[in-house]
Every structure is written in C-alpha cells, then in structure tokens.
Amino acid sequence: MKSKNYFKEMLKGAELKSTKHRITILEILKENKLPLSAEDIYIKLKQNDISISLSTVYRVLETLHKKDIVAKVNIPDDSKAAYELYNNEHHHHLLCVKCRKILAVEGCPLEEYEKFLENRFGFTVKGHNLEVYGYCNSCTGY
Ligand SMILES: [Zn+2]
Ligand SMILES: [Zn+2]
Cα–chain-centroid distance for residue 106? Predict the structure, then answer.
C-alpha cells in the first residue's frame, strides 16, 4: 500500500522505528478524517483483529505526538484527548459536549488578533489553540 511507505518514511524522518502498530494507527487516523480518541482507535484495531492493549495505543499516540506526527486535541471536561494526523494547515475544532463529535474547521480568524497582541504587548506570537465547544446540529435542542 502506498500510504504504508509514506508513513514508513515519515517515521524514519522522525527517527522512529516503523512498527506494525505505529503504521496501523497512522492508517486509521488517515482514514478517519476526524480526530479519534485512543479508545476509538483501540476499538477499530480490535475490529480488524489486531491484538494490542489500550495502554499500547496510548503509548504509540504519545510517541507520535512528541514527534509532531500526530496532533492532540484536548476535550474540555473530559480526561480523554483526541488525536489526528498533524496537518500543516492550521485549523480549529468544534467539540460537541453531548455526543463528543469533533469537527475540524478550516482556516483561522485569529490572525488579526495575533497582530493586535504583538503590537499591544510587544509579544512574539508563535501559535495558539482554540477549541470551540457546544452542541452539534444533531444534539441541539436537548
Ligand atoms: Zn453532538
Ligand atoms: Zn487559529
């Protein structure tokens, strides 16, 4: 498979060994356009008859996160985090607090605000996080 080689190169570039678990988890993240929690990934691995423990899934995700291959989305009021493939395109998320769905939103409205902060505080902005939470359109009204 083509994506397998792509991920192998990616891991090599990050000085990580290409293990079956790492490659499979990267493939799952690629197939699912939305961020997934470690539990979601664990369930998908089980469905594919891949034997792995949940703690291994966490460990793999954290390793990939440290190398900036996988980005972490922190969910408020939830100890779980969701993970997605690191995407060079800066973007934000909408988190549904009821069904826990996460939607990725393209683009960023904060560029002007960053400029304002730089001028106001003489601060060099290197980035920001913004997660918007509430109810998705299926959960509105409950
Ligand atoms: Zn929802
Ligand atoms: Zn932004």
Answer: 14
Ligand 2 centre to CA of 114 (Å) is 9
**Among candidates 56, 62, 66, 58, which has minimal Cα distance to 14?**
66
Same domain as 82, residue 93: no
Domain membership of residue 105 as a residue range? 89-142
In the sheet that 131-134 helps form, which strands lie side by side, from edge to edge?
102-106, 91-96, 131-134
Among 69, 95, 94, CA closest to 80: 95
Centre of ligand 1 from the C-alpha of residue 99, in Å? 4
Ligand 1 center–CA 129 separation, angstroms: 21
Same domain, 94 and 137: yes
CA of 75 to the centre of ligand 1 (A): 13
**Which of 70, 92, 80 is CA-nearest to residue 40?**
80
pTM of the predicted protein model: 0.74
Using one digit for the tens of pLDDT, what is the confidence trace for 67-95?
A: 989 998 877 666 778 999 887 678 888 99
Residues 46 and 60 in one domain: yes
